[in-house]
Amino acid sequence: MLKIRKREEPWKWGALVVFLGALLFSLVLSALLLKGQGKDALYGMTVLWQGSFGNVWSLEDVLLKAIPLFLCSLGVAVAFRMQIWNIGAEGQFALGAIGATWMALAFPDLPRFVLLPLMFIMAFILGGLWALIPAVLRLKLRVNEIISTLMLNYIAILLLDYLVFGVWKDPASFGFPMTPEFTEGAIIPGIAGGRVHWGIVFCVVVGSGLWAFMRFTRLGFELTASGGGARVARYAKIRYGMLVLLVMGLSGGFAGWAGCVETSAVLNRLQPSLMVGYGYTAIVVAWLARLEPLNIAFASFFLAALRVGVENMQLKLQIPAAFGTIMEGIILLTVLAGQFFLTYKLVRKPRQE
Amino acid sequence: MKKLLKLIGLPAALLLTLSLFACGEPPQEEKKAEEPAKTEEAQAPAEEANVVKVGFIYVSPVGDAGYSYAHDLGRQAVDALPYATSKYAESVPEGADSERVLRNMAREGMDIIFATSFGYMDPVMKVAKEFPETKFMHCSGFKKGPNVSNYFGRIYQARYLTGLIAGSMTKTNKLGYVAAFPIPEVIRGINAFALGARQANPEVKVHVVWTKTWYDPALEKDAAKSLLDSGCDVITQHQDSPAAQEAAQEAGAYAIGYNSDMSSFAPKANLTSAIWNWGPMYVKTVEEIRDGTWKGDQSTWWSMKDGVVDIAPMGAMVPDDVRSMVNAEKAELMAGKDTVFAGPVKNQAGEVAIAEGTTPDDGALLGMDWFVEGVVGTTN
After folding, report:
1. pLDDT value, residue B129
2. Where would a tag sit more exposed on chain A, N or C end, judged by fewer CB atoms within 10 A?
3. Domain hosting residue A28, numbered range
């Protein structure tokens, strides 16, 4: 007889064992699915590996894709740690892109070292303000932020559409929805002329900054402590309302930065195809990483690698694109479900008469 | 302490996984090396030394109907050629992701890559610069370069014919149009449809709903339902799924499909579909690659007489007089007489936008951003 028991003390190296176990389990499951499609499963897994890490360029691709994911997840995690459920990273991402584009179009002739900071500042402000709307609604009117952040995503995307289909539309684009291409000064350059751009350094700075803030400052401690809820916070004489605003502002600002980086470094202009759901994927990444900044870095890298690798599988094995989504789903589900074993254990119990 | 463990746990796990993979690699490496050789052997037997490798990227899943499906039928025609092999990637988002896929295809050694959606334009231009030996064909855009040409088809000719049918079949004089994005390609189709419909029945109005997506069956269906609820009794679409067709059938209304013949999805509702038939064009392009006659920096619009655009066989509910009218107009188009946008054409405000006796050139069509009279809706 097996029985479920709560663990009394944390399982040493448990997270590692569970993660590896879950990963192995889901890879085997995916391989079986490949087999079911009549493909060479082993070759498929090799292609997956090759596509993610096998070459310099695939690593570059993974890093490029991980950057916006990391920034969005960081934002989401900041809010989640305080049990503020910000589902609105997608919209805040859009607002950040809008803010950055605004600056890029308004001051095209500024030198890079002035214009880029301006873009980042405006992206942070607009993304943050967008996130403050649900925060204020929650504090003043007790509106559930899950609903309001989610709804604001749609409004943000419509706002972006309005701008690129309307006032910001490039007159030379034959009516197609896109802004003019940014000037040199508004584009984040690649590191040493490569494709990986300086946004990655920015990620490192922001990530470690946040980690230090959470760990070493009083405010950071208060944030984590308030995760227990408003009543706990009030009992500890923590200004809960202020913290909600701060957390949401930060959260939105980070997502805004992601939007800024993606617009400036990757697309070099604002257009609707910017929105590919990083804000939603960020939620998964944040949970996968259990809301820890360093883990988020790895989780976004991991998820980006998976996406890039799976694409490679599609190309080489000619499997349906949906297979990638299925595989991603299996991995995430098993890893998350595996965390059950971190809090509980199965114990063998002698049968009693 | 617990937190610290957690902090290092996941990264450590990842690292370990990576090394695990790394250990397993050497034998797989060998396998990888022999694999491409094997497939090439299988697909290109005997003396075929100069196989043309063709890549396609699609914005939506191929599925069994719609835009990408139509392109994929064309790809299959290419694949059937003895001197060509093809590969495709589906559901590739426009923007950064498509750039990566294009690059990977170029690295795979594709001779020519067909990028089949508008949003691939900038990525194609970027990647084309990095791979000057690879040739690129971009569908529906306006940029070109030494190794990039663009192509599209005069699907508006087919739209015009479907408009004739819709205008003849409606009882409420309200036609519904589920449309993706307010870009010239879509607007051109709506205008052609409206011109056809009002040719058959001057009372008709065409109501437009924008979904702002190429492919989202649920949203497409909702948009169709809202049009049906407001009294439209013929629905057509510029979308990739047959969802709007199904909505029309459920409501007992008529529908006109797009991209591929959608009659099997809503046999009671489907009057016809404006369809793409890319096979001849793709085969011709691949032939040019083989013969070394392909040229960059070209823009080609294929029309009905080239066999690239057409309408699907009309449903049994379309009466004979409508059929003969449509067939007569189609014969004109097949003969190369394209008068779809021939003036006078009025805009929504009732002003003459295309003067009598003139026909807009392709540049004007490419940038069309206004609706003709009889369309209800805005172009943004």
Report:
1. 95
2. C
3. 1-39+320-353
ipTM tops the 0.90 cut: no
Angle subtended at Cα B323 by Cα B318 and Cα B327, rounded to the nearest 5 degrees: 150
User: A155: left (phi > 0), else alpha (psi -120 to 50), else beta?
Assistant: alpha
For B171-323, strand residue ranges (E) read 174-179, 205-210, 234-238, 254-259, 270-276, 299-302, 309-311
Least confident range from B34-48, B81-95, B215-229: namely B34-48
> What's the residue count for chain B?
380
> What pTM was estimated for this model as a whole?
0.85
Task: Determine, for residues B93 and A320 on separate chains, whether the beta-carbon distance falls below 8 Å.
Answer: no
A49-60 exposure pattern, b = at least 16 Cβ within 10 A, e = fewer: bbbbbbeeebbb
Residue A244: C-alpha distances to residues A248, B81, B329 (Å): 6, 64, 66
Q: Answer with the residue of higher pLDDT: B285 or A223.
A: B285
Q: Which residues of A touch B110 (CB under 8 A)?
A: none
Distance CA(B139)–CA(B363), nearest Å, equals 16
Of the candidates A135, A63, A100, which has an alpha carbon nearest to the alpha carbon of residue A297?
Answer: A63
Which residues of chain A are modeled with pLDDT < 70?
Answer: 1, 350-353
Query: Average pLDDT of B102-123?
Result: 94
At A115 the pLDDT is 96
Quick one: closest CA in B to A315, which residue? Answer: B89
Phi (first) and psi of residue B146, to 5 degrees: -55, -35
Searching chain B, which residue's CA lies closest to the CA of residue A45?
Answer: B28
Same domain, A33 and A138: no
Please tell me which of the candidates A273, A308, A316 has its beta carbon nearest to residue B95. A273
Same domain as A344, residue A265: no
What does residue A122 show for φ and ψ, rounded to 5 degrees? -65, -35
Q: Which domains does chain B have, with CATH numbers?
A: 50-153+279-304 (3.40.50.2300), 155-275+307-376 (3.40.50.2300)
- pLDDT bin (cut points 50, 70, 90) of residue B42 is very low
β-pair type (B254-259, B234-238): parallel
Residue A15: burial class (beta carbons within 10 Å; 0-12, 13-18, 19+): buried
Q: A338 and A287: one domain? A: no
